[in-house]
Design a protein that fits this description.
Rossmann fold; alpha/beta; 7-stranded mixed beta sheet; 598 residues; 25% helix; single chain
Length: 598
């Protein structure tokens, strides 16, 4: 549209606008200076610190390192020795019983957070080293008699003298877990040739299944809630087997979609056919296309087992028929079945899902659901279908282990600036960095360190660089950061989402090494450093290690807090001797609760 001719007087005299424009410029400059001061003062509002002076330079502005006053944390009382803040049985009464949702994560508010050091049990000893720890552990480290009294007849474990022994038994494998897995391998040949690499065991007991699979090249996340079995997950971790607290209830498990190659339930007591099959839908979500779901226990082999299940053959047959119907509606196919074990396979492609109609139940999820969103996200009664843009997401298209570890997965392209070149650069960076770590911490790579956590990984590079060491690594991806956990699983590694403003889903004293790379640089605007470090102390074993790779701005403050937690720390240069970055290597001291506090 053409402009109309201006009317007389439409353009004022230019000199008349000089004074207002000058005043406006002064006001804007003053406002910018004021707002900039507010932003800078609030950027580290979570840290109670002394004033940080700004050192002016003609070349650049340098921020002096963060400084805080020295402090010493008291000991928690001895009844906190197995304290799990976000799955605390003392708080269960506050939450409903619907689908056992009280066992899900319910973290205490800030006003109820403890600022004390969790003591070890009386008589605690340094854990037995791997691989001997798979078969035995010190009784005083996990002093729970209930599980021994209730499960000894099933050969879960037995107590002899000062130790617990794990004979490898279980409810559904009375002949030992080895014979049980041998049969499973006959039913799933991919377990032998590197096709199946990652697995999840729901209702894991003391994780004997996951422990056996380690020798077969399969890495398992053993999952169990904090329940009356008293520390199933703690037993697993004490043995050196990957495990995490969790339950399929009302929310997604903290894993991305299409991640695990195999899921397993051995009489795990999950009511698969109730609530419209919603728990099966969650297994479907986290299984990779073409992945396997293995079930043993009711109602499998009901014809021969029903008498021992306090039920009738008719009830078990009806349950089995219902289970098969639900699985078929989700595009699972019965892959193989023998004796007490049945195996279903998730559809390897989208051909089955494309045949579903709007009247189908369960329906396909709509676009409003992100299948990878899994941190406090409610379960939904719909099928999360794989992204059709990915052609190599399926189990048969994924490179076999160990080749998949160093091949850039398709899902890298989903990430900001993600590409195969960046992936390879990250892989090379971590090989060099871990080599440098080992010169500063000789215990890394030895049998002194078994359970490792990378607290804020991107692609799992730290874990990949340690693949030849006798360790396993829990890769943690921030629930507020770049969602790269799918890439970690595509590489054949394991991990979980987490928010470090909250407590982690594990028991005290469960990790030998905690590693963090610029965690406070990324999260200091949300999470208070003191509480993150106290949580690290809770989950770190006595005599365990911490490697901190951080901006130099935070190093002194971390050192001060660490000293108040009875850690011994040393500062080192990074592998490239970068002035703005430093390494801090710390070791937690072994101490015992004072008699006055017991």
């Amino acid at each position: 549209m053409k402009n109309k001719d201006p009317k007389p007087g439409a353009y004022p005299d230019k000199s008349s606008g000089i004074v207002p424009m000058t005043l406006m410029f002064i006001v804007l400059c003053g406002s910018s200076f004021y707002l900039g001061g507010i932003f800078c003062s609030e950027k580290v509002i979570f840290f109670k610190k002394d004033e940080t002076p700004m050192i002016q330079s003609r070349k650049e502005t340098v921020v002096a390192p963060l400084q805080i006053k020295s402090l010493a944390f008291p000991e928690c009382s001895s009844n906190y020795q197995d304290y799990t803040p976000c799955t605390d049985p003392k708080r269960w009464r506050k939450y409903g019983n619907y689908r056992l949702s009280f066992m899900e994560r319910h973290c205490p508010p800030m006003t109820e957070r403890n600022e004390c050091l969790v003591p070890p049990p009386d008589g605690y000893k340094p854990p037995i080293r791997w691989p001997k720890s798979r078969d035995e552990c010190w009784y005083r480290n996990v002093p729970y008699d209930w599980i021994n009294n209730q499960k000894s007849n099933q050969h879960w474990l037995r107590k002899e003298g000062e130790k617990f022994y794990f004979p490898g038994g279980g409810t559904m494998f009375p002949n030992g877990v080895g014979a049980y897995v041998d049969l499973m391998q006959k039913l799933i040949p991919g377990m032998k040739d590197g096709t199946v690499r990652t697995a999840i065991d729901t209702g894991c007991g003391v994780a004997s299944w996951g422990g056996d699979l380690l020798d077969r090249g399969i890495l398992t996340v053993s999952l169990a809630p904090r329940d009356n079995h008293e520390a199933q997950v703690q037993f697993a971790l004490e043995r050196g087997i990957p495990a995490i607290l969790g339950i399929i209830s009302t929310q997604h498990l903290p894993f991305p979609s299409n991640s695990f190659d195999m899921a397993h339930c051995s009489r795990c007591l999950i009511p698969w056919t109730e609530f419209g099959g919603i728990y099966l839908l969650e297994i479907h979500r986290i299984l990779r296309p073409g992945g396997f779901w293995v079930l043993s226990g009711p109602p499998i082999n009901y014809e021969n087992r029903w008498r021992g299940w306090n039920t009738t053959v008719q009830e078990q047959k009806a349950d089995f028929d219902k289970l098969k119907k639900f699985l078929a509606s989700m595009c699972f196919k019965l892959y193989s079945k023998k004796d007490d074990i049945a195996v279903w396979q998730k559809s390897p492609d989208n051909s089955c899902y494309n045949q579903l109609t709007p009247a189908s139940y369960p329906p396909k999820c709509d676009d409003s659901m992100d299948p990878d969103s899994a941190w406090y996200v409610p379960l939904r009664s719909c099928i999360a279908t794989p992204n059709q843009n990915f052609k190599k997401l399926g189990l048969q298209s994924t490179p076999k282990w160990p080749n998949r570890l160093h091949i850039a997965p398709e899902r890298v392209s989903m990430l900001p600036s993600g590409n195969s070149g960046g992936f390879k650069h990250d892989d090379s960076k971590w090989k060099l960095r871990v080599k440098h770590y080992k010169t500063l911490l000789p215990a890394l790579g030895s049998d002194k360190i078994r359970n490792v956590m990378d607290m804020n990984t991107l692609y799992g590079g730290f874990a990949a660089a340690l693949i030849s060491s006798p360790v396993w690594v829990m890769n943690v991806v921030s629930s507020y950061g770049v969602n790269s956990l799918g890439v970690v699983y595509d590489r054949g590694l394991i991990g979980t989402y987490h928010d470090w403003c909250e407590a982690f889903s594990t028991y005290p004293r469960t990790y030998d090494l905690l590693h963090l790379d610029d965690l406070f640089t990324a999260e200091s605007h949300r999470c208070e450093m003191k509480y993150v470090l106290l949580e690290m102390d809770r989950i770190l074993r006595p005599n365990g290690y911490v490697i901190v790779h951080e901006n130099n701005y935070f190093i002194d403050a971390i050192t001060t807090i660490a000293k108040g937690m009875r850690w011994n720390c040393q500062k080192h240069d990074t592998e490239y001797n970068v002035e703005k970055e430093k390494l801090l290597i710390c070791q937690k001291k072994l101490w015992y609760a004072k008699l006055s506090q017991q």
